Recover the amino acids of this structure.
């Protein structure tokens, strides 16, 4: 009996010790678990908040180095790099049941201190982050030990050697009555949402995370600065994961802060938007760039080969294989509702266009495939882009259904120090400008558009081939809207490409050429129309710098060159000159060879042509008569001229045709440039 009592007593004692041990272990474990604030990478923070098959939320690579380091803009997030090149994740309370999980991680103490200097909107400011706030610029998984249990938290564990965070622990509340406005193609992102009546969340709230839920159950996590700003403003670009919401309805917006989890039930339809490359007619492209300025119409290229040459007309398109027009600009466009494009032609990767051109006697064939085939496609043809472009216009529809294109988005950069050489009546156009020092745009680059601004604030858009060639060479003719620039000073030249908008401040005076193309030709002189005709038919471009020099006398070389140009500059059959004074590199050589082959001249004797010898009226009329085929006049005599004079038949013919009156002819009088073009003009008409 005594032994039994002893045995029972020992059993009770052992049980008591065992219970005390278990309680002690539990108490020790409870003493070991701690709460910390921790830097959690986005992917791991959102993993338990989203659907299992949702792609991880990545860190943000920031385009601006100041915003990620500005606490008022990026509050609730952290960045690892001191240069501000990233936004890595979320600072959030975490329950750690096993403190050994924290071994080797960076611990932030009350004594920790980070000083950050940023420049926003031109103003520099410095902020000191101390203690727990120093997590703002610290490595991932850095932590600060909390002294109290937080209202909301995640729980940390380790699975297969990696950290795993639970969903947010804490009671979620629901707030109804929220309203939202959706903007497509906004200033900040492609899709922007502004929320109203968000009780518990305002513009000053430090937001840890936001989860959007769609009607199909899909969920998307948002990141700071790029997707969440000023608390109640959300958005995303079309190259980000939330773009999967396109064409869906957002049914719930969950806000996660360190103190609360709030669900805002909504019914928010998100349009199926996208980016495309589109053929935009010149007028529509330039409308928003110029305001009240003049945009070019479709350009009639001087040759169908130039507008079809991808090197010469890069950045433009032409609507069809026939004709000689350059119709507009190929440019990226943000389309808020892809269904807007239903009536238009979609260009796919399978499309191919083969274009054959001839330039300088050589024929070449180029094949344009996929998006490149927009080069020869109708107005508003489009190709869907898979990545967000660097620059774009935004498409919208007016009440009448017509389309409108915004100005190209993004800030323009400014490059100083550009110089310009202006030529008048050049080879290509009446006014030609060659730019130097255009950093960001080099000769031969693909240019989509150019806008000239004059000192009076007027703006003018340029077209390809006729106004823009080899990128840095610009010009226009007197029959274009750009002729209004004549007599003004260009103060700025804006270049628009698919990747940049660059302003070049300049001061380029442009001479007032009137309608003649020359500054020294009166508008009502008796030879004015003849000079205009000669310039338009490229018989002469003057003597340089916008000057015609009407009173200058003419030599034989100039006269033969005028006649040759009037004939269309035919290529001579031979290459050998019969004249000793016409060199191989003489600018008038082809004209002289043509004149010899056409029977207009056999020189001045002794194997000479005498190119610099001045010409008189008799010689000029003799050349014109021979060019006309040496026809006989009905009345073979000219008053005051001997019948046997070598030039008598020419004068008789000229008088009969009304080219000259007897009172106009002075034997031996040298001819001026004004008189010669007047005779050519009368002969041609």
């Amino acid at each position: 009996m005594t032994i039994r009592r002893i045995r029972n007593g020992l059993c009770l004692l052992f049980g008591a010790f065992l219970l005390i041990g278990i309680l002690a272990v539990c108490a020790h474990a409870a003493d070991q678990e701690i709460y910390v604030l921790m830097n959690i990478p986005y992917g791991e923070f959102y993993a338990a908040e989203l659907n299992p098959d949702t792609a991880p939320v990545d860190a943000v690579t920031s385009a601006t180095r100041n915003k990620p380091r500005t606490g008022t803009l990026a509050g609730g997030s952290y960045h690892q790099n001191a240069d501000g090149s990233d936004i890595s994740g979320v600072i959030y309370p975490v329950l750690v049941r096993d403190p050994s999980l924290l071994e080797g991680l960076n611990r932030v103490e009350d004594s920790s201190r980070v000083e950050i200097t940023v420049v926003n909107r031109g103003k520099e400011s410095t902020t000191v982050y101390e203690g727990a706030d120093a997590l703002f610029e610290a490595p991932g998984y850095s932590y600060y030990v909390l002294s109290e249990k937080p209202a909301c938290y995640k729980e940390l564990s380790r699975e297969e050697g990696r950290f795993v965070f639970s969903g947010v622990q804490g009671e979620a509340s629901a707030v109804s009555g929220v309203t939202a406005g959706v903007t497509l193609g906004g200033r900040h992102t492609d899709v922007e949402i502004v929320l109203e009546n968000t009780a518990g969340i305002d513009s000053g709230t430090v937001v840890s995370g936001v989860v959007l839920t769609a009607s199909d159950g899909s969920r998307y996590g948002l990141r700071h600065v790029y997707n969440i700003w000023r608390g109640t403003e959300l958005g995303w670009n079309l190259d980000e994961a939330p773009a999967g919401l396109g064409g869906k309805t957002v049914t719930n917006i969950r806000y996660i802060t360190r103190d609360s989890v709030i669900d805002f039930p909504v019914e928010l339809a998100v349009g199926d938007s996208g980016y495309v490359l589109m053929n935009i007619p010149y007028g529509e492209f330039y409308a928003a760039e110029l305001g009240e300025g003049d945009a070019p119409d479709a350009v009639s290229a001087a040759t169908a080969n130039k507008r079809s040459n991808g090197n010469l007309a890069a950045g433009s398109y032409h609507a069809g294989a026939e004709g000689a027009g350059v119709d507009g600009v190929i440019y990226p466009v943000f389309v808020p509702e892809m269904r807007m494009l239903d009536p238009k032609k979609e260009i796919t990767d399978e499309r191919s266009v083969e274009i054959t051109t001839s330039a300088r006697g050589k024929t070449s064939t180029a094949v344009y495939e996929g998006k490149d085939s927009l080069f020869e496609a109708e107005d508003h043809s489009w190709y869907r882009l898979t990545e967000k472009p660097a620059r774009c216009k935004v498409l919208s529809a007016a009440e009448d259904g017509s389309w409108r294109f915004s100005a190209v988005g993004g800030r323009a950069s400014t490059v100083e120090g550009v110089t310009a050489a202006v030529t008048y009546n050049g080879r290509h156009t009446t006014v030609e400008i060659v730019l130097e020092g255009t950093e960001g745009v080099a000769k031969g680059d693909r240019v989509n558009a150019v806008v000239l601004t004059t000192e009076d604030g007027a703006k003018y858009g340029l077209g390809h081939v006729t106004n823009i060639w080899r990128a840095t060479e610009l010009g226009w003719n007197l029959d274009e809207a750009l002729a209004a620039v004549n007599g003004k000073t260009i103060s700025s030249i804006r270049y628009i490409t698919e990747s940049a908008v660059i302003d070049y401040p300049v001061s380029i005076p442009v001479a007032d050429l009137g309608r003649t193309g020359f500054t020294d030709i009166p508008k009502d002189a008796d030879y004015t129309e003849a000079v205009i005709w000669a310039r338009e038919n490229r018989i002469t471009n003057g003597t340089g710098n916008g000057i015609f020099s009407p009173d200058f006398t003419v030599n034989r070389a100039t006269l033969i060159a005028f006649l040759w140009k009037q004939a269309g500059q035919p290529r001579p059959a031979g290459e050998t000159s019969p004249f000793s004074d016409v060199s191989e590199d003489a600018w008038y050589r082809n004209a002289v060879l043509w004149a010899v082959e056409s029977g207009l001249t056999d020189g001045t004797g002794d194997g000479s042509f005498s190119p610099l010898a001045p010409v008189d009226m008799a010689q000029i009329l003799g050349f014109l008569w021979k060019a006309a085929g040496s026809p006989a006049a009905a009345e073979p005599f000219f008053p005051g001229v001997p019948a046997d004079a070598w030039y008598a038949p020419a004068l008789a013919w000229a008088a009969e045709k009304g080219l000259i009156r007897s009172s106009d002819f002075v034997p031996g009088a040298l001819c001026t440039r004004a008189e010669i073009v007047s005779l050519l003009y009368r002969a041609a008409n």
